[in-house]
Amino acid sequence: MLKNWSYGRPPSSRSAGRGIPRAAVVKIMSTKKTPSPAWNIHGFTLLEVMVAMAILGIGLLVLIQLFSQGLHSVTVSEDYTKAAVYAREKMTEVLTSQKLPIGLSEGLSENDRFHWKVEVIPSPTDVFDDNPPFLMYKVKVGVTWEGRFGEKGIQLETLKTIKKNE
After folding, report:
1. Which residues does 125 contact at the CB level (< 8 Å), separation at least 6?
2. Could you tell me the CATH number of the domain that includes residue 138?
3. How many CB atoms lie under 10 A from the CB of residue 120?
4. For residue 142, is it within any domain?
5. Number of domain units in the chain
6. In this structure, is residue 4 part of a structural domain?
């Protein structure tokens, strides 16, 4: 047997003590008509679909642009890293050579990707004693390459001391 009680109370013939018979309340509620056109029940309108597609398209374009910028940043970072490594190799080559090449020298890398310049100039030693036992040279190594929006470059500088020949 099914119980038709709500919240543990038996159904009454009166509606919640208001003096209205329960059957009358049910009848009043059932005579109300709610507007529900047939076209609203079956799905989305063409305008709603077009707006949703436009929003989806804009979102996809933003994502594609972000991926493109990320790839460009990786390429630029790779170029700077390769240039820094190449400049460090040139610096090491100059600093470890038997005779320091005083002046300006330049050239291209093996793959013609980078253009390098090495400048070795005497540096003043008058900040030391009257007669220091060494000579000091400033060594500059610059590496440039063609980037997406023009020429890019990196420059390294150091000082090298050489014992004086007496």
Report:
1. 132, 134, 135, 136
2. 3.30.1300.30
3. 19
4. yes
5. 1
6. no
Whether residue 57 lies inside any domain: the answer is no
- Report yes or no: 117 and 106 within 8 Å, Cβ to Cβ: yes
Is the distance from CB of 115 to CB of 143 less than 8 angstroms? Answer: yes
pLDDT digits 0-9 by tens, 74-113: 999 999 999 999 999 999 999 998 888 899 999 998 888 8
Residue 51: CB partners within 8 Å, gap ≥ 6? none
**Is the pLDDT assigned to residue 35 strictly greater than 70?**
no
101 touches 94 (CB < 8 A): yes
Whether residue 5 is contained in a domain is answered as no
- The range of the structural domain enclosing residue 92 comes to 80-163
Q: Can you give the three-state secondary structure of the chain, one letter per residue?
A: CCCCCECCECCCCECCCCCCEHHHHHHHHHHCCCCCCHHHHCCCCHHHHHHHHHHHHHHHHHHHHHHHHHHHHHHHHHHHHHHHHHHHHHHHHHHCCCCCCCEEEEEECCCCCCEEEEEEEEECCCCCCCCCCEEEEEEEEEEEEEECCEEEEEEEEEEEEEECCC
Give residue for tokens 């929006």. Answer: 149
Single pTM value for the model? 0.61
Q: How far apart are CA 90 and CA 152, in angstroms?
A: 18
